[in-house]
Design brief:
The protein is of the alpha+beta class. Helix content is 30%, strand content 24%. The strands form two sheets. It has a four-stranded antiparallel β-sheet, with helices on one face.
Amino acid sequence: MKGLYQYVREVWKKPQQNLGELWQERLIAWRRENSTTRIERPTRIDRARALGYKAKQGYMIVRQRVPRGGRQKTRPAGGRRTKHMGVRLTLHKNYQLIAEERAQRSYRNLTVLNSYWVAQDGKYVWHEVILVDTDHPVIKSDPKINWICAQKNRSRVFH
């Protein structure tokens, strides 16, 4: 017999097929939102719970949008051969890490716990980032998560 989270996990293996119109409606709505959007509850409850999310005070979820594709620099005025112009740059970080860093910059008082993929289209990729308020008394008193309150774990996403 399967539990609820196993069914949810199966749906998210092929979300475009399984979610149908809901998938397209979500992407249309998410494109209009700001790149960093605080949400009330996780879109993928199974993944969020597996990565440490709890539905209690001190936890927060943010949907972060990152543009896809390589990065480009402006062309230098001259005096270089094409190889050394450095116009096309390959990404050395994955989209998930970029999403976590941008969420951390938006919410400096919180600490990134983890993140997971939610959606992507031709232009953007979306990740939901789990943030924890390290100064919240509920977090400080919980022995399972209070390790994140240590000073060395602040802004750990940039380490």
